[in-house]
């Protein structure tokens, strides 16, 4: 996906939300955040990989522009030592949306989507399951081609390079085993049908 494609998605989101697009500085601020030096995986590469499935979001989500906005902001704030990245990212999105004139229902749904990425569990408050679409997209890296999955593994390690190797391996192994222990990694039927098998393969082979 080109930078021009990414910007077009940004423009389309505001049009679909029926809101006046913020000044250019808001978009540039997002780009800057995803290029911060502490990031190796949670970068624009990740955002572009998420938006590779934008066509499905448009077709399947009840409020597709809100899911797309949540994709943009779900990792807007990323500090590996912090425990409140999702909350702060949601606050940032809320501020931008409020300034643009979004209504309370729009803001709350987007906030819920972003907060759901903290635990990657379904948001039961969202009966339309739009949060599931976002969560599945966020986890599609687990089903990537083996070479990309290995690159992802290395990128995550770089983000946690301050953690001693033994401790990192133990914690990382625990996280990956938790995904494997789930009845289904992907909750949306489309993503489950397309990617569940590949994700489990990668997780089984992960070191």
Distance between the termini: 30 Å
Determine the oligomeric state from the structure. Answer: single chain
Portion in beta strands: under 5%
The outline comes out as globular
Order of helices and strands: HHHHHHHHHHH
Q: Round the Cα radius of gyration to an integer and report it.
A: 17 Å
**Uncertain runs:** none
- How many helices? The count is 11
**Mean pLDDT over the full residue set:** 94
Overall number of structural domains: 2
Structural class by helix and strand composition: mainly alpha
Number of strands: 0
Q: Helix fraction?
A: 55-70%
Specify the biggest β-sheet.
Answer: none
Ordered list of secondary-structure elements with their pairings:
Layout: H1 3-17, H2 24-33, H3 44-51, H4 54-60, H5 64-73, H6 85-99, H7 104-116, H8 130-138, H9 146-159, H10 165-181, H11 189-205
Structure description:
This protein has 207 residues and is mainly α. The chain has two domains: 138 residues, no CATH class; 63 residues, no CATH class. It is built from eleven helices and no strands. Helix 1 crosses helix 5, helix 5 packs across helix 7 and helix 6 runs antiparallel to helix 7. It starts with a helix and ends with a helix. The relative contact order is 0.11. The model has no long low-confidence stretch (mean pLDDT 94).
């Amino acid at each position: 996906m080109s930078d021009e494609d990414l910007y077009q998605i940004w423009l389309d989101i505001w049009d679909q939300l029926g809101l006046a697009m913020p000044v250019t500085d808001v978009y540039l601020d997002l780009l800057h955040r995803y290029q911060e030096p502490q990031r190796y995986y949670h970068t624009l590469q990740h955002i572009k990989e998420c938006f590779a499935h934008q066509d499905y979001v448009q077709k399947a989500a009840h409020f597709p522009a809100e899911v797309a906005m949540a994709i943009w902001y779900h990792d807007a704030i990323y500090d590996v030592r912090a425990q409140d990245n999702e909350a702060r990212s949601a606050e940032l999105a809320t501020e931008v949306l409020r300034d643009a004139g979004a209504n309370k229902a729009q803001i709350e749904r987007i906030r819920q989507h972003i907060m759901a990425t903290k635990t990657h569990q379904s948001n039961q408050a969202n009966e339309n399951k739009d949060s599931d679409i976002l969560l599945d997209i966020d986890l599609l890296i687990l089903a990537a081609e083996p070479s990309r999955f290995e690159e992802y593994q290395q990128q995550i390690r770089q983000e946690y390079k301050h953690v001693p190797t033994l401790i990192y391996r133990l914690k990382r192994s625990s996280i990956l085993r938790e995904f494997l222990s789930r009845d289904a990694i992907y909750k949306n039927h489309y993503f489950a049908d397309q990617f569940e098998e590949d994700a489990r393969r990668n997780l089984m082979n992960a070191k």
